[in-house]
Amino acid sequence: MALLTQTKFARLWLIFQHIIGGTADKRRLALRHWQGQTNVLEVGCSAGNIAGAFARLPGVRYTGLDVDGAAIKLAQKRFAAHHRLRFLHASAEEHAACGDIYDYILVAGVLHHVDDDMAVSLLTATRGLASDDCRVVISEPEALRPDDNIIFKCFYRLEQGQYLRSRQSLLALAQRAGLEIASAENHDVGTGIPGLPVVARFSVIVGGWPAEPCAGRRSQ
After folding, report:
1. Local structure of residue 138 (DSSP, 8 states)
2. Which residues pair with 203 in a beta bridge?
3. Where do the DSSP E strands lie in the chain?
4. What value does the CA radius of gyration of the chain take, rounded to a whole number of Å?
5. Residue ranges per domain, the chain?
6. 16-69, pLDDT tens digit by residue?
7. Which of 10, 47, 89, 213 could form a disulfide with 72 if both were Cys (CB 3.0 to 4.6 A apart)?
8. Any idea what the Cα angle at residue 14 is, between residues 199 and 194, rounded to 5°?
9. How far apart are CA 204 and CA 56, in angstroms?
10. How many CA atoms lie within 13 A of 136 on its CB side?
11. What's the pLDDT tens digit per position in 174-212?
């Protein structure tokens, strides 16, 4: 399955995600801590796998960022009729230079593809994109535990990320980046096929950026 990457086969990768990749549960986790915020940013949106959850919400303006041009092109094509959704081929650092701000920032399924230093840099970059009351939600597949069953272990062999972390390790990264943590949770993720068992466990870290002493950040 390592050959089935979103860069080489963006559409096939998306189909795979919908069939057994737990898309429904991932969307549920993306919305779990959403409380009516209207300016949403997803860092690492891929081909819009989670974006569909926000397309259904009235009044929400969604921006998805990804450094994978093929995935962004597919997302733009899929959601061309949704004028409140946009997809940009850019990193968080690059987008921060545009001056846009958001009150809900989602970093989902990205950090397990990068090492600790890069993960901290990515999270830190979102600070320049956050409103004063912005909620930051990090959702990541958790590393296998010694007592996980054979189904978990088989499913995780399909995972292409090289930096799967425990919830505590992910929490430490978020704190190292400077986030003020509101909660840290674990949630089961299924394939989306009725009758099949849970195949993965996700860590969800929720937090926000501390208020700055000077008026350097902006409100919605």
Report:
1. E
2. 140, 186
3. 39-43, 61-66, 85-89, 102-108, 130-141, 180-190, 198-208
4. 17
5. 22-29+36-208
6. 565 555 688 899 999 999 999 999 999 999 889 999 999 999 999 999 999 999
7. 89
8. 40
9. 22
10. 28
11. 999 999 999 999 999 887 677 677 888 999 999 999 987
H-helix or E-strand spanning residue 15:
helix 10-20
Could you give the strand order of the β-sheet that contains 180-190, starting from the edge strand earlier in sequence? 85-89, 61-66, 39-43, 102-108, 130-141, 198-208, 180-190
Q: Pick the closest to residue 63 from 44, 85, 31, 82 (CA basis).
A: 85
Which residues of 111-163 form beta strands (DSSP E)? 130-141
In angstroms, rounded to a whole number, what is the distance separating the alpha carbons of residues 3 and 7? 10
**Rounded CA separation 121/75 (Å):** 25
The whole-angstrom separation of Cα 110 and Cα 138 is 9
- Given a cut of 50, whether residue 77 has pLDDT beyond it is yes
Residue 1 has pLDDT above 60, yes or no: no
Q: Which amino acid is at 78?
A: R
CATH of domain 22-29+36-208: 3.40.50.150
Q: What is the pLDDT of residue 135?
A: 99
